[in-house]
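Tokens for chain A. Residues wanted.
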């Protein structure tokens, strides 16, 4: 994904809005930990951003909320989105997959998608090669014994050991529990009498994004992100 070359929130209005969101530390804190999908001006998904970032962009008029209603895309400014949120509260039209923020003077629903009004760059679909993404790709499951573990109990294993020319690539590194990694040692899986659960491949997109797309709260993202066969 590309990085957004946009200013932060220097104006007083945006800072005031963000300050109100930081005022309550219960459900608001949880809501602020969710994510928002950012689209460019042409409705192409470019980046997953924080809720704070999304509201800053909305407050400055640099973005609009995109809400899917009856199969159609509807755009809202910060003010009209706040009005819609207040109407939903009055009608009791709230479901459990939504996140809400309680500020000092109002409550507002966290948008799932925003569109940047003056940003039209085309996104790059590169996936970072790092420890977290390998764990996510493999589902935190040891690729030898098949058991799931927390990150603290997992390690990265070179299928072809580094001592024998094994490279740091998606196709040569898998998630392994500490015991299996030690048992395998400096051997190949065949030499150690161990079998891989699946052939490791480079993900077509971010494993973290794949996990988020599986959650009902981010269902709206599926309208803008192509499905893969992974």
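Reply:
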């Amino acid at each position: 994904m590309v990085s957004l070359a946009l200013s932060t929130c220097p104006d007083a209005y945006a800072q005031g809005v963000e300050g109100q969101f930081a005022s309550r530390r219960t459900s608001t804190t949880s809501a602020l930990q969710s994510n928002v999908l950012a689209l460019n001006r042409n409705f192409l998904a470019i980046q997953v951003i924080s809720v704070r970032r999304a509201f800053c962009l909305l407050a400055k008029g640099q973005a609009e909320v995109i809400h899917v209603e009856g199969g159609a895309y509807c755009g809202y400014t910060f003010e009209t989105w706040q009005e819609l949120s207040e109407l939903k509260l009055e009608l009791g039209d709230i479901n459990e997959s939504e996140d809400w923020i309680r500020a000092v003077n109002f409550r507002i629903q966290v948008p799932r998608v925003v569109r940047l009004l003056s940003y039209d760059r085309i996104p790059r679909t590169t996936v970072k090669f790092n420890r977290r993404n390998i764990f996510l790709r493999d589902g935190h499951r040891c690729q030898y014994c098949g058991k799931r573990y927390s990150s603290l109990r997992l390690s990265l294993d070179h299928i072809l050991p580094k001592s024998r020319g094994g490279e740091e690539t998606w196709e040569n590194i898998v998630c392994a529990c500490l015991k299996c990694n030690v048992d395998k040692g400096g051997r190949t899986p065949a030499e150690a009498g161990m079998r891989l659960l699946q052939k490791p491949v480079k993900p077509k997109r971010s494993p973290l994004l794949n996990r988020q797309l599986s959650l009902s709260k981010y269902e709206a993202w599926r309208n803008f992100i192509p499905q893969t066969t992974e």
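The first helix runs from residue 12 to 21. The CA atoms of residues 29 and 177 lie 33 Å apart.
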